[in-house]
Each structure stands twice: as C-alpha cells, then as structure tokens.
Protein 1
Amino acid sequence: MPKIHVLPQQVAEMIAAGEVIDRPASIVKELVENALDAGATRITAEIENGGIGYLRVTDNGCGIAREDLANAFVRHATSKVRTAQDLDAIGTLGFRGEALPSIAAVSHVKVMTRTEEETVGSVLTIDGGRAGAVEEAGCPVGTTFEVRDVFYNTPARMKFLKKDVTEANAIATLLDRLALANPGVAFELIRDGKRTLRTPGDGDLLAAIRVVCGADVAAQMIPVRAQAGGIAVQGYISRPTTSRTSRTLQIFFINTRYVRSHTCAAAVEDAYKNRLMVGRFPACVLNLSIDTALVDVNVHPAKLEVRFSSERDVYNAVHLACAQALAEAQRAPAPSRPKLTPFSLDDFDYSGQQTRIGAPPVPKTPTDLPRPALSPLEQPATALHAGETPAFPRPTAPVMTQPVYPRPTASVDIEVTEPRRFDASDPRPARIEPPPDEPVCAPQEPEWRIIGELFDTYLLIQQGEQFHLIDKHAAHERWNYNRLRHLGETPSERQVLLAPQAVTLPREEYFALLENPEVLQAIGIAAEDFGEGTLLVREIPMLLDGCPLGDILSEAAEKAMLHRRNLTPSVLDELLYSVSCRASVMAGKESSMPERAALAEMVLGEEQIRFCPHGRPALVTLTRRDVEKLFGRLG
Ligand code: ADP
Ligand code: MG
C-alpha cells in the first residue's frame, strides 16, 4: 500500500484553486463579484494577453480595512457569512471565502485598498500563495487587484488555456453579463489598451442592453415587470417580430446573479408559442427577485446553476410576466420605423406571402451566379468528370466522414420539390428556358421582367399588376439553405472533387472536427484525416464550388467546439444558415444581367423563397394599387 501523507499547505491550496479558478475569466468574475458585494458603483477591468499575462480590477467600493487585509487571503475567511444558518439565505455574490486564496495560489497578486475611515491605504503582495507584509500606500477609497502570470506555477492548467483572444472573449462575455445584471454600476473593460465596454451605470437596464447587445436589439425590446407567487420578474424581452437563431441572447439573473436556467428559458419560450417560427428564439434579459431562502446558490462550483425550492413557481412567474408583456406590446403600437410621408407603407403586405407567383413552383438552378471571392490560400475545387480518376493519391488513413445528411428537425420544415438536375457543362444562358411542357408561370400568371437593380442590392421586377423587390443576398441564401438541407435526397447536387483539397486547420479546430464528424456531414462535406492538422476534402455540395473551404471548415469546427456535447439538430441547422450565407451573392455588388435573371427565376419560381433563413424577407411585393395609393391617385 502506498503511504498516506498530508499534503503541504501550498500544494493543497493549488488543488483547491483548481475548483474555483480554471481560466483568467474566473479570476475576473470573482474580483468583480467582490467589488459588487463591496457596494461599488464603478468597476474597471483591464486585461492584457487575454488576462493571462496581466489583469487588473479596480472598484470604488467600501475597501478592506488594514487589519483585515491579510485575512482576506486565508481560505474560508469571509465577511459575508458567519453561521451555518447564514448559508440558508445568501444575499451576497460571494460567501465561501475561497476566491482570494485560490487566485493567490496560482498567480502573483498585488492588492491596494482603502476604507473611508482610513486616511492612508494599504498594499499587500502575494506570490504563489506566500504573503508579504502589509504596507501603507496612498490610494483612493476602494480596492484594486492586480494579477500577473496566471497559472505560472501550474503548467498542467496553463496547457488548457485557449488562445489569448479566446480568453479575452470569455472575459468580455462575463463583463457584458455583469453589466446587464447591474445597470446601476458603471462597467469598463480595457482590452490590450483599448476600451471595449463602457456602460453608463445610471440604473437604466435598456441603456445597458444598448451598450452590450447593440442599438438594434435594444430598439426591439419590450419591458417586463410582473410579480407572482412572491417572485418579481423584471427586464426586457424581444418583440416576436425579431427573433434569433440561437438562445445565446437569453440572459437570466436570480437576485442579480447570472444563472443558466432551463426552467426560465422554457417559460419564456412557451410564452412566445405560435408567435415564432420553429427554430427561432426570443432574446431576453430578465432578473428574478426571489426570497433568498427559496434559492440554493450553493450547488455549482462557479455558482452558475441554482436550485429553486419550487421550479413550478418560477416557471409560472416568468411565463406570466412574458405573456403579459407580449399582450401589452400587441395592443401598443410597434416602434416607429421611418415612414414615407405623407403616405405610409406600413399598411402594405411586406411578406409577399399573399402573392402567388408562378404556380406550380418550378425550382431552377442558377448557372451563372457569382462565387464569393477566394482567399489567397484557397484553391478552387474542381469537379471530377466521368472517366477521370482523382489525381491525388488516396492516403491510407480511414475515411473520416461520409455525408449522411441528418435532417434537422428543430427548424422550419420547408418542402422543396425535386430540383432540376444541375449540369455544370450546360451551355444554356442563366435565363433558363423551360422545356415545352413546363410553362414559366401558371397559365394566368403574367410574365415578369427585370426593371433594374436598386442600390446594387435589390432586384426590381414587374409582373403584371405587381411590383417585386428582391433582396439578392437574402434570396440566394434561402435558395442555398434549401439545397443544403435536402442534399441527402439529391445526389446530383453533390460533387466529388477532381483533386481532393488539403485543408490545414489550427489544432483545436482540427481535433474538434475529428471528434465530431457529424458537423461536416451536416453540410455535405466528406473529408479524411491526413494527419498533422490536415484534412483532405473529397466531396462537397455543388453550391460550395469555389468557396473558401478553409473558412467553412473553421466555422464548422467552431460550432463543434462551442456545442461539443450538445450538437443538436438546431445547432447543425445554424451551421447550414451560415454556410448558405457564405455561398451567396453579396449585397452592394452590382450583378450582371444573367445573374439578375437567374436570381429572379429562382425566387419567382420557388414559393419557399420568401424569407432568408434568418427570417428577413427575401421578397417584398407592392400591387399597382399600393403604388397608386402612395401617389394619391386613389382615395
Ligand atoms: P467571499 O467573497 O466568498 O467572501 P473572497 O475570498 O472572495 O471570499 O474574499 C474574502 C473577503 O475579502 C470578502 O469576504 C471581503 O470581506 C473581502 N474583499 C474581497 N474583495 C473585496 C473588495 N473588492 N472590496 C472590499 N472587500 C473585499
Ligand atoms: Mg468573493
């Protein structure tokens, strides 16, 4: 039997630190939470090299008295709880007294602090858990923590750190959430000398949302304020007219502590039932004020999850609050959009859904659409023609993926009729002529003609008594998305590369793709492991011909890394959205006549192409009557 011995204090501290501190962002989290507990109204975080080399958090809170300063770094030393009973109702963000000793165990720390009662401040330096002497220092009321060389003495942990930019992003995301949870506190983030966040701290949550999520998101938010079963729910949710492709903008706080909560997310989404397309999600920033005795925050090492004494009460309160807010918003007018005076376009049908164009739909394949520009390192993929053999020798490595095309289920179900076979060698012009038995439009349906292109972005088309505006990018994106989703049934839209293309990726991305072959399968790419960070791409969907494959593989890898254990159909569907986007013509670039014709043919011939995959309209239709009303010709 190996002999049992008690670990030296320093080793024990380093092990314990692993529980609380796993990356620079967790240090920033603990320091900022301490600042909030200290009643700060202004908190500034500064980071260099993703916080690994240097980070500093400054607050104007109550400070630490000189006689307490050394104690703050002792494990389980806290000013926030005293007795076991106190644990039953925790009102502060910290309570374990573990953060400071853990941070000090794995980095070089310097703290400067002064309370209001003191005329001179104090400074203390701690290196690898060993504290120096507390000395006098001139400083304002509040506290500044400087942390250098994170994990310098724990190489194993150091190895797990991501790129500086990834660590910095994690810190930025954290501060965004803290700023949203505390609109009364002015937050600042300075990243490698550049200020990337500054919230006003005036108590206005919408102002904080504007800074963190952007003015567009903020403009579409509606207020929520309700109380049920002793739970107050307050914040903002998005109008049903502006949904998102993922849940990343669903932010919940319990007594201003950021938490992940399936119960809250389900309650919000259920309140939007039948108001959003399947696969679309509302955005929200909601704080729940609950009696601290009814929540257990001590169930997760990073306190990211909480346990409610009654999940049902929480669900009911959130659901009711959101349902009320949505009903109220429906009664009140939507935010004003720029109007054409004196006539308004608001009365018109923007959706184009009432407009029946070209029944039955005849899906067409645009032969002449431009391809996105290649990055200098990319070689265009080349189709393998019949009778030719791949010039690239096949490596002996086992085949990694063969497209199996899982059908995303958690998204809009779009029925696409069998597309016409695409033949790259077809010399026909892009304005595809239908075979004799296949009219361009239904018999009564009038022919269309392209009037021109507006702002290099919208096609203008007249069709009988109707005037269509087509968003080129949105329409092409939808067309591509429909094709990608149905690749499994349409082998003719896949392409074996004449010369398999080698793509070398950053290690992290390469491993992520090897670990999660389903991400490439979902977008119809077949690749093999070629070793040393390189994948050999053998088969791609036809519509990605000429696209920069490296970028697409990187994007797929990113999804795999983000959702490692949870690659749901809707995550894969999101990947389809962005790949469709990459393969689409760009707005703001004038199209040639054949391109315009091919795009118009696609949209008018396929009724599913009315919205882009993100829900923006691809087609807006005005009738002659609408136009005449605009000019006052009709009463
Ligand atoms: P906890 O937050 O769980 O109490 P910490 O290790 O994070 O434990 O901090 C220990 C103690 O140090 C806190 O209880 C608090 O009294 C004091 N402290 C830490 N940071 C600050 C700060 N920024 N301002 C004032 N006091 C602080
Ligand atoms: Mg703390």
Protein 2
Amino acid sequence: MHFFTYKNGELFAEDVPVRELINEFGTPLYIYSYGTLIRHIRAYEEAFCEVPHIICYAVKANSNLAILRIFAELGIGADIVSGGELFRAIKAGIKPHKIVFAGVGKTDEEIEYALKNKILMFNVESEAELYKINEKAKSLKKIAYVALRVNPDIDPKTHKYIATGLKSSKFGIPIEKALDYYKIAKSLKNIKVIGIHKHIGSQITETSAFVEALNKILSLYDRLSKEDLDIEYVDIGGGLGITYKDETPPHPKDLADSLIPLIKNKKGKLIIEPGRSIVGNAGILVTKVLYNKETDTKNFFIVDAGMNDLIRPTLYGSYHDIQPVVIRKRPKLVADVVGPICESGDFLAKDRELEKVSAGEYLAVMSAGAYGFAMSSNYNSRPRAAEVLVKGDKYALIRKRETYKDLIKNEIIPEELL
Ligand code: LLP
C-alpha cells in the first residue's frame, strides 16, 4: 500500500500534487512518501512483535541520508554491504550496534572501519574472510562479532540476477561446510561467533522459499548448539517481493505467521533485512515527455529519464507501471517509453498501453523507490535526478539535482602529460 493516489485525475504524493513538485524541482524527479515508509516499517514491527527481533533495513535499496534518518528515528538498524553504506548509516544516526555487514568482498579498510565503529556483526561469506577479520581484529586489539552467511541452496523463483541462495551463487558458505567453518571460527582468538545468516534472493513472492531456507538453517542451528556453539542472532536476510504489476507477494504478517512458529522456541534474536518491501512502493520517478515518435512498426514516447536513472527495466526486464501525472481520458496507444540515452536498451517500458500523452506532459514511473536512484549513474554524462520527500502537505528536497560541474568535479586533466 502506498500514498500515491489520483484526485480528480491528477496524481498526488500524499497531499501534494505531483505537478507542484515538478514545477519546483523539474524532472527527472524521484518522489518519496514518508507515510508509506512509516507504514511499511510498522507492518514489519507489528508482524514480528511476538519474537525478539531487529529490523536491519537493507541500505542498498535506497541509501538517501534523509530516508535513513527516518529509519534511525524509528530505532531501525541497517544491513550494509560496503564502507560507504556504513558511513551513510552512521551519518544518518543508525546505531552501530544494530548494523550487520554482509558482502563477499569486504576490503581490509572496510573491515577496520566496521571494527572501529563496533557494528553488531559481520556476516562472513568465506573461510578466507574469517581469517582476514580475525587478523584485522587482532591488530586493532578487538573482538570481531560474526555470523556465518550460509548458502542453503534454495531456488527463490525470482530473476536469476537476484537469486543469491543457490549452490552456484557466489554468496555465503555451502551449508554442508558450515559446521566445519563454525568450528574454525570458534578457534580464532579475535572472533566471537554470535550468529547465523542467510539471504536467498530478492523480489520473492511466496513464503515457501523462506520457510524452506529457515528450516535448513535452523537444523544447522540445532547442530551448532550441540557443539556448544550458541547462536544469539538468527538473521534471515531480506527478499520479500512487492507488487509491480500483478504479483501477490505475502504481507510481512503472512511471512511472520509462517516463520514465527519455527523460531519461537529458539533462544536469541531474529534479524530481518528488508529493503525493497520498505522503500519500493514508497517512491516514484517522474519524467517529462520530450517527443512522440511513430515509425512503421512502433510508437515511442521519448522521455527525459533514461536507463541511467532507472536501470531495472533493461537490466532485469522489470515491469514498472507507468501513469500520466494528469489523466485526460483520451485514446490509448501501445508504445515503448524510452529515454534519451544512446543505447537500444534504454527503455522504461516496452509495448505498453498508455494514454496518448503529448510532448510537455509528465509520466510517473511507479514502484521506483527501491534500487531506482540507488542504481543510477551518470552514463551519457547525465546529471543524476533530484530526490524529494513528501510528508502530508509538506515536502523537502533530499538530494539536489546534479549539475554539469558535479559531473567533472573529481576529474583531473594531467597537464604535465599532455
Ligand atoms: N540482505 C542482503 C544480504 C541482500 O543482499 C539484500 C539484497 C537484501 C538484504 C535486501 O533484499 P530485498 O528485501 O530488497 O529484496 N537490484 C535488484 C535487487 C538486488 C538485491 C540485492 N540484495 C533489483 O533492482 O531488483
């Protein structure tokens, strides 16, 4: 559920007409709804209230500082995968003791940075990483708290690029090796094992994969207890899908109802790392129609947002609903919605039935709050979009539109070589 609705044929973000935001900030423009973010966090909090838990929001989905600050105010933790994300999370006020750090390629600097900031735990993805973290902790005279990320070999039935818990994937430790690695971890002096972690993929629309994966890691949990390896945190990752078109993903409550019975009697705390299901439907991308173009075979709406602003359609073939900002009830047309970038893969929608909007009108690309701006780039030297947060009838700019100067600010012409 979200707070982007039409009133008299005009799209509103909460109580603010999208047109007003366009007039003030221009396009392409990401617009987020505060009320929707809060609603989604509450849905998780209420769903899992029966068991001790921490929600560690997956920063990668949308890492804008203002969004992170909203979560910090609610006492939410963070799932991070880089030093940069740790920097953002801390800057936003998220408590380090609620931060978990995953990722297969943590660098020495990132490990040190996280140790110095006393994060809750590292979600370790390989044997070599265990040794590395131990060595770094030793040199800093610290104890590193870790969970092992276990790869349960489960097909989450999602796009192959975002399935992460299959045997063939680079993520985690094969479940059959996990016990051995836990024993190694236990033997390392500067490491304290406190958790078990898994994350099987993203945009998962059935609870069964979550249940299967949790069952697998809980049988490992039981074996670990027998070996005197007590686990304090069971981190089940993120991955709950959202409705982009006609998917019917479980509500956090459905997820909780199917998982809580499995963990209720276990000691320790549950960690959940939702990203998309918190921010996905809390954001839209608004774009201006620049040209209408007809060829013998196709109609095109050429808009001012491109694959550099929202790469999901071309990268994963993802569907994002597209609606005119002002509905005028006119004939519809089947068209591709394409950006200005010099790539045939630069599209936001293919063969989409849309009202025949004219140049100068605006379209809203829905469900763009997760992995939208966060995956944007400057390709074709396009300054990145501005981002705005709406709360009721108020709004604020939370990221300025980039300028041409921003594009080149880190570049150096080495006169001495030229
Ligand atoms: N935890 C870990 C360790 C993860 O790798 C991820 C996402 C999450 C949590 C959050 O998953 P979520 O609740 O958002 O599904 N760029 C892709 C999605 C990549 C997801 C990567 N990992 C997309 O646009 O669909």
